[in-house]
Design a protein that fits this description.
The chain is mainly alpha-helical. It is built from five helices and no strands. Helices cover 90% and strands 0% of the residues. The model has no long low-confidence stretch (mean pLDDT 86).
Length: 148
């Protein structure tokens, strides 16, 4: 890679890292607001919303990546997809907090409340899985509409 090519690549990496950090900061703030306002269900809402948004992002990004890798794009679309994906990924990674689910389930298990621990995991994993599949379908549909 030439010197100028390396500089562009390094700038792109720094930009994507900044996008990821900005999304993460915003996601953490939204999660805090949700848990403060909704209470215990705020965590479930945050995790489900994060899964839904990640599904939409993948549904929107994958067709663009396939199109670009086949030589059908000029590369600018790929950079935009990467930047938006970095912001959304950072947001979702900070919004969804699976370590808190694990801690709550562990506390319940240590207190021998097995049903509570099982319900926590079932609710978060079940709703998260449904949300990511629905989001992926919505993202693919949205991509088809935007692509014309």
């Amino acid at each position: 890679m030439s010197g100028a090519g390396y500089e562009v690549f390094a700038l792109l990496q720094v930009t994507l890292l900044a996008c990821l950090a900005a999304g993460g900061a915003l996601g953490a703030l939204v999660r805090r607001r949700l848990t403060d306002r909704i209470g215990p269900r705020g965590l479930l809402t945050a995790n489900t919303t994060a899964a839904l948004l990640l599904g939409v992002t993948v549904g929107l990004a994958v067709p663009e990546l396939v199109h670009t890798s086949g030589g059908g794009g000029d590369g600018q679309g790929l950079v935009l997809v990467a930047a938006v994906s970095a912001v959304v990924s950072g947001f979702c990674l900070a919004l969804g907090t699976w370590s808190t689910v694990a801690a709550e389930a562990a506390d319940a298990a240590l207190a021998r409340r097995w049903g509570t621990a099982a319900r926590l995991w079932t609710a978060h994993l079940g709703l998260g899985l449904v949300a990511v599949v629905v989001g992926w379908g919505a993202g693919l549909g949205l991509h088809a509409v935007l692509a014309g």
